[in-house]
Amino acid sequence: MALLLNFQDNIKDMLILHLMGYEPKAIKKLLINVYRPILVVSFLLTLIPSIIIAQWVQKSLSIQTGDYMPFQTNTLFIFIIFILLNVLYSLVQITFIRRIKNVINKESITDYTNVS
Question: 27 exposed, middle or buried (CB, 10 Å; 0-12, 13-18, 19+)?
Answer without folding.
Answer: buried
